[in-house]
Specification:
homodimer, about 575 residues, alpha/beta, FAD/NAD(P)-binding domain, Enolase-like, domain 1, 5-stranded parallel β-sheet, 18 helices, 31 strands, about 25% strand
Chain lengths: ~575, ~575
């Protein structure tokens, strides 16, 4: 008798696992159930559908040959029996059956399996605040919600949207609504920065500034207390701990929780905070039951900790591993390094591994350093500056994480992916980063690529050679210059620095690097000194020269390019 | 007394090593000599200067702040004494001196050192053929030669240029001359493909086609026997083993040889074919002498063999390692994976690790497989197709190399860099490639990225699941269809396949994948069958379905997208 495989969930991992298993074992009897109307869709594309980049909602559920992936498609093209409107209620592991319910008729039945795949995904978190069930309050993780919002936008029914949570979906939706539809958008984040689990504080400020350039209001360290409704039961105000904001649309994007209750109820090992535990074959504690995608807890390959990483790309790769293993294969999924990327307004942010906060929380003696460098040979036309921030362990010189920010998304993704690949397969050190052999030709990169440069600067930092501060710290010194008495020295060409010196005499000195050896007497020895240039490189050379004459100054990482990306250049 | 460091060579590695050493040890006495007029220039940018992307020759030797890197720059900004027009004649290791000659006056003198850096680079290979010294016969590795050619172009003095050697510089120069100046260009390559040491045969055909689209003539498997001159001693004809070609400019680009004779003469260990041998600290067999860049032989991290990889990026990274170590540091350079990239006409080619030929020569039981996939989510606008070819060892499933080809250079570089990073730090397997955690969001990648896909297809290949042939093989089957009796089945939508079927009845069948289950009876069992679709994916699914009914067919990797990139689609 043929192997009976039942897959619960038909969005990302489920279809992948089912189709892969069928290809490897054509005689297998494979059924995939889903509680919704739509299956096998690209949920990650929702903000791009709302924002108009994807013209039709069906674009998110068609193959690249233009065929809609519905039940008939799965039967004809994949040999998989897909059944929609069918919710799994419970798993009976002794009988090897799943009790299911037709969501349209309420009818219940029992479905047998030899091997079961749990691909139930996740549900958006809804904050437990008054008014969270008002009209025009929603989250956007399913196609129906996406379509509803898109139609509201197209009908000009939204004037002011408030997005609660500055994670990926929150920021993508903010851009979609503000850019495409010109809607007034406010993003509210409880933590002290956007993308708090992903970005260093410096790049979070760049991301915030980039959104503000589009007219989006970003409020951090602010929490929503209540949503107030109008006479029709529709939301009209958002009340935070700091203010009241008028709003006719509220979108929750404060993360998701794994739909693992059905597994826990069946006695499968789950993490105390939710999420099914699996081994590296993506098998649950019952060897006949596999799980993957948004419903599982996996391992962070850098910290060794449990990790919850609900991403469509994870679901796809894990789906293939399950499809292979469920029919007797031996594919493995060892864990995650947590690579990610997001398109903002003009900027693109990326990352992999641990942030400084996460690294410290995991017990590393971590520091971070950031650079600005051209993504192509500087003599080649059309290059952009890439910001890269690396997190390293001081003692072992191990590379723990990287974050990037650039107007050129592909360029910053390339550097991040290379580091992610190293983090996935080994324990890279700063030396590995300095020598990372990325492809080189002038139209693609500098001979010393930005990813090598950030390794070099990290090396200089951990050896105590480079006395570097973050742009946050530099701006704080500048803001408090009346009290701290710092002199700020600018090593860019005079055309850039002199006008600032003229605005701030006695506080700011323009001193092009070429002139430093003869003008070094102008740098005082009796007050603290902070250095800046365009990218941080020239000021580093100046720092070394000043050290020779007994002056120890701090250098602002990323120089004025970083300050400009943060919107802080206007302060000078 | 301060440490006396002497650096021979001032182009790429020399300046980097000197400046780094000075930064780490400000009290060091560092001198850098060079036989030429120009130092610290980006030689890799020469084709872009000739082709007009870099407006001024000095653009190749200025900092990104616009300062020319000459002797004064090195003294003022770097604290390094740079001396041009000074050639090193011999090294006296006992006395620790170098005998040098002023190339303008002929005056000789002796320069002492405590630590010596040999950064003498390489020289272009000149084929030993009659006429190789005629006027307008040159190579383009120095700025003077580049300027001469650029001036000839600007004065419209070149009508037909012949480029001998289809390596990086040859192809970049071909594009520069044909694209910017509209010059008739012929490239002659002795081997049977362009970029023979870098590209798989399939992508070499794509590269050739891409150059032909620009009007460049590419002749492979052809060797130059003689250059003939006119009455003024200028070249006028190129004689090959197959034809005579009129030409008023000839450029040699058949590689370079290391300038290691001075090291060999001093008794330093050198490779029999040239190139200084160094340890992982880039120390020669004399611990007081370091060497790097184009003059050394390093190690291939994948094959373990000796490797000669003269690239500007190598020189820069190695220069930093030498600068660190020469003042007592412990940086290492373990070897190379051989990553590279080149911009052609509309296409960009990239690679890392071993080609199939190289892998077989190194003793691996290697196979390769190629895919075509979108570099962004297929529903996202503006994606391009990336071609990726992976070379794997069948038995160990180890990944040995990757090559890429795409109209989007950054996209294909990103995937190649990620694999290069894995090759550099570990021994990645196919499973690692399938699970490679590259950053994902729809504007950047597909949920199952092309780099994962090529891993998946390699997995299917080595398991015998996917019966795949290269486009070369597919085209050969098509060309010989009268003899071999193959039926070709096209699984794309009928709009794409039907017109071909109508042109070739009985030989070509249009059968959209969706219709296969009901029309499978149309596939004959008594003649061989070859399958094709747009990318290879649908035809793979068809292959599995046909296998169920006892028909074993071959599938053309990369489908019609590959055929189109090769210029072979017009044959159908």
């Amino acid at each position: 008798m043929s192997l009976k495989i039942l897959v619960i969930g038909g969005v990302a991992l489920g279809p992948k696992a089912a189709a892969r298993a069928k290809r490897l074992m054509p005689e297998a009897d494979i059924t995939m159930i889903d509680q919704g109307t739509y299956i096998s869709y690209g949920g990650c594309g929702i903000p791009y559908y709302v924002g108009g980049d994807v013209a039709q909602m069906d674009g998110l559920r068609t193959t690249n040959a233009g065929v809609v992936r519905d039940e008939a498609f799965f039967m004809n093209n994949k040999g998989v029996k897909a059944i929609c409107h069918t919710r799994a209620l419970s798993i009976n592991r002794k009988d090897k059956t799943v009790l299911v319910e037709n969501t349209q008729t309420g009818e219940q039945s029992s479905m047998p399996y030899d091997k079961l795949v749990i691909a139930t995904g996740s549900s958006p978190r809804i904050p437990p605040i008054p008014g969270n069930d008002l009209k025009n309050v929603t989250s956007v993780t399913c196609l129906e919600a996406a379509q509803a919002i898109q139609q509201q936008c197209a009908a000009s029914k939204i004037n002011h949207a408030v997005i609660i949570g500055a994670g990926f979906i929150g920021l993508e939706m903010a851009v979609a609504l503000a850019d495409m539809w010109g809607i007034k958008v406010t993003v509210i984040e409880m933590m002290d920065q956007v993308l708090p689990a992903q970005l260093c504080t410096n790049y979070a400020q760049m991301a915030k500034h980039d959104l503000e350039e589009l007219g989006v209001t970003v409020l951090t360290s602010e929490s929503v207390k209540e949503l107030k409704g109008d006479e029709n039961g529709a939301v009209c105000q958002v009340v935070t701990n700091k203010r009241v904001i008028d709003a006719d649309q509220v979108i929750f994007s404060i993360g998701v929780t794994p739909n693992s209750q059905i597994a826990a109820d069946a006695g499968l090992l789950c993490h105390p905070r939710g999420g099914i535990m699996v081994n590296s074959h993506l098998q649950t504690s019952d060897p006949d039951i596999y799980a993957g995608g948004d419903v599982i807890v996996t391992r962070n390959l850098i910290s060794g900790d449990f990790a919850y990483l609900p991403l469509g790309s994870m679901a796809n790769r894990q789906g293939r591993v399950i499809g292979t293993n469920i029919v007797g294969g031996q594919a493995t999924f060892e864990g995650v390094v947590g690579s990610w990327c997001v398109k903002l307004n003009q900027m693109h942010a990326t990352g992999a591994g641990l942030t400084l906060r996460q690294a410290k929380a995991a017990g590393f003696d971590a520091v971070e350093v950031s650079v600005e460098a051209a993504d192509k040979a500087h003599f080649y036309p059309d290059h952009t500056n890439t910001s890269l921030n690396v997190v390293v362990d001081k003692k072992s010189q191990r590379v723990l994480g990287i974050q990037g920010m650039s107007a050129d998304g592909s360029a910053v993704k390339a550097r991040t992916d290379a580091v992610a690949a190293m983090l996935q397969i080994g324990r890279p050190t700063i030396n590995d980063l300095s020598n990372l052999e990325v492809c080189y030709a002038p139209p693609f990169a500098s001979a010393m690529d930005v990813v090598n440069t950030v390794g070099n600067v990290a090396d200089n930092l951990v050896r105590g050679q480079h006395n570097v501060i973050t742009p946050d710290e530099f701006v704080e010194l500048w803001d408090n210059r009346a009290e701290n008495g710092y002199l700020f020295v600018d090593f860019r060409p005079a055309a850039a620095g002199k006008p600032i010196e003229e605005r701030h005499p006695g506080e700011y000195l323009s001193l092009p690097l070429e002139d430093l050896r003869e003008r070094q007497g102008e740098i005082p020895t009796d007050r603290p000194v902070a250095l800046v240039c365009n990218t941080g490189t020239r000021a580093y050379e100046a720092q070394l020269m000043l050290r020779e004459i007994g002056i120890e100054a701090v250098n602002s990482a990323g120089g004025f390019i970083s300050l400009r990306k943060r919107g802080d250049d206007v302060k000078f």
